[in-house]
Amino acid sequence: MRLRDADGATVHLAYCTNVHAAEDFDGVLSQLDRFAVPVRERLGVDLLGLGLWLAAPVARALAEQPQLRARLRRELTARGLETVTLNGFPYQAFQAPVVKHDVYLPDWTDPRRLRYTLDLALVLAELLPDDAARGSISTLPLAWREPWDRRRFRAAKAQLDELAAGLARGERPIRVALEPEPGCVVESTDQAVAALSAVASEHLGVCVDLAHLACGWEDPVDAVAKLKAAGVAVVKVQVSQALEVEDPASARQVLAAYAEPRFLHQTRSSAGERFDDLPQALASDAPGPWRIHFHAPLHAAALDPLRTSSTVLREGLAALLTSSDCDHFEVETYTWDVLPPSARPTDDAGLAEGIAAELAFARDQFAALGVS
Fold it and tell me: Fewer CB within 10 A of the end CB, N or C, for the chain?
């Protein structure tokens, strides 16, 4: 959706398609009709933004075949859909039965990551609407934290430098954003500033994922201020929220329903206890409150007695809209299929309804901040 701020500037709001399993071009087209069009219709809008996720084989095929890129743009336009941002974090198989640490592979020390991201940039340049100011691509925050050393950092830096040079040669302005995440080499705002200062480029910046920010127990106003003071561009924002629990000891049975086998659910306590996945936290006696990296639907309450990091969401959006120039916002709830059964959609229509409800919720949050 296209929104307008108080000055009349366009703010793009999309939903991320990494919630859908699609590993080939036909699969990408299929999800447009199964989900994106029904979401648009439920919202009652003429134009819906998609933060497309293209698995590496699809991105390669599109990069190699101009006619395929042109076809994808036609297919989007015919359905009242547009794309100004891509999610380039997962490389492929993001909806496989078990993902866990594989989502960080290949990392930024591997030439495949560079090739994939440059492919995405080429594809996005074709998909961008003619009147779009720029495009954005979110990517992983260098790598999972282990193994990591100076040699690997030098390798990653060399590839990011090459990425920046490739983006500078592009036909349309496109920026790539590192997305800090718990457990990674870059998981905090301070680490993002340090990493991006080492590869300074107008084509690189940060993607602020509000669920990740919450899990790090960072104050969103302070985080945005740090990025602004350091001159780090907020290229993209993922409008998301984490799970939160005040007293884990009394909520273990409910928490266990969220400890599923597909994704990592890094868990952090306000006192600094760190767990790479929720089952590890549940096996501990760490006191609360905890925040859990489980992207919870924006509009729905978590199972009682859990709650969500909605305060970080609201305060983060307010800070970002007033203190940054970011105009790309993406609702990224990829966990619908692994929610506890009582909260999980049972069919395609239910998933489309849930995504539409999230976007409507997000639209209301923007409207309350003067962006409509």
Answer: C
Q: In the chain, how long is the greatest CA-to-CA distance?
A: 57
- Name beta bridge partners: 239: 331
User: DSSP assignment of 139-196, as one string?
Assistant: E--SSBSSS--HHHHHHHHHHHHHHHHHHHTSSS-EEEEE---TTBSS-SHHHHHHHH
Where helices occur in the chain by DSSP H, the ranges are 25-31, 37-43, 56-64, 66-78, 111-127, 150-168, 189-198, 210-215, 220-230, 252-256, 278-282, 310-323, 348-368
What is the per-residue pLDDT across 9-21, written as a single tens digit (0 to 9) for each? Answer: 999 999 999 999 9
Do the Cβ atoms of 336 and 258 come closer than 8 Å? Answer: no
DSSP state of 130: T
* Residue-wise pLDDT tens digits, 157-208: 999 999 999 999 999 999 999 999 999 999 999 999 999 999 989 999 999 9
Task: State the pTM of this model.
Answer: 0.97
- Measured in residues, the chain has a length of 372
Contact status, residue 156 vs residue 112, Cβ threshold 8 Å:
no
Alpha-carbon distance of 186 to 170, in angstroms, equals 27
Whole-number Å distance between alpha carbons of 347 and 131:
36
Instruction: Identify any residues that bridge with 329 across adjacent strands, giving them in sequence order.
Output: 13, 237
